[in-house]
Design brief:
236 residues; alpha/beta; globular; Rossmann fold
């Protein structure tokens, strides 16, 4: 299992960085991350790629395959937000989020599954969000893309499940990252009141769920949505 090639998109910061780091900690020796700038954690190899550009992705996959081998474990994590209320949201703000968070996942999936089909083994893990199931004011664009990942994972399961490929969604809630730490203290306290666990998760708590889904122990789990939200979504 440690020889399987892992690819984490957007692995240079936040949850993506923690996921790549956890794969290394778990003993995987071939962990690649895509970045637009910067580097991934120690023990990983970074490849420049933009998920909004199919040619850029194809070039990155060619480099990864030459250096490490075909990707068997894909973690589609790269994403952006452009939050604002619906009536103020421009076409560009909606379309930019869709092009990165949904179209970008499609582009990565299309390329990655080619190698998985040949090897008759693959793990597809899409990083969704609790707001894709619960909804969130000011995030019509973001929540729409994260909700769509559920249908995508379940369609992949029906299409490629017989080829030894699983596809699941991990749906984090509020996570301790640079983004949440920059929020005002009163807002953080208000958010925590809504979470039954009473706290935000650490990025490593999300990462451990991802590495488990990638393992042989999770070979019979596919088309599932795994919440990592402290009970915030309550089964939505």
């Amino acid at each position: 299992m440690s020889e399987r090639v892992v690819l984490v998109t957007g692995g240079n910061r936040g949850i993506g960085f923690a996921i790549a780091e956890e794969f290394v900690r778990a003993g995987y020796s071939k962990v690649a991350v895509t970045v637009r700038s910067g580097e991934g954690p120690a023990g990983t190899t970074a490849f420049k790629a933009d998920v909004t550009d199919a040619a850029s992705l194809d070039a990155a996959f060619t480099e990864i395959e030459a250096a490490l081998g075909p990707v068997e474990i894909l973690v589609a994590n790269a994403g952006i937000t452009r939050d604002t209320l619906l009536m103020r949201m421009s076409d560009e703000q909606f379309e930019e989020v869709v092009n990165t968070n949904l179209n970008g996942v499609f582009r990565v999936l299309r390329r990655a599954t080619m190698g998985m089909i040949k090897k008759k083994h693959g793990r597809v893990i899409l990083i969704g969000s609790v707001v894709g199931l619960l909804g969130s004011a000011g995030q019509v664009n973001y929540s729409a893309t994260k909700s769509a990942l559920v249908g995508m994972a379940r369609s992949i399961t029906r299409e490629l499940g017989s080829r030894g490929i699983t596809a699941n969604v991990v749906a984090p809630g509020f996570i301790d990252t640079d983004m949440t730490s920059a929020l005002p203290e009163d807002l953080i306290a208000d958010y925590k009141k809504k979470i039954p666990a009473g706290r935000f998760a650490s990025p490593s708590e999300v990462a451990k769920v991802v590495t488990w889904l990638a393992s042989d122990d999770a070979a019979y789990i596919s088309g599932a949505v795994i919440p990592v939200d402290g009970g915030l979504g309550m089964g939505h």
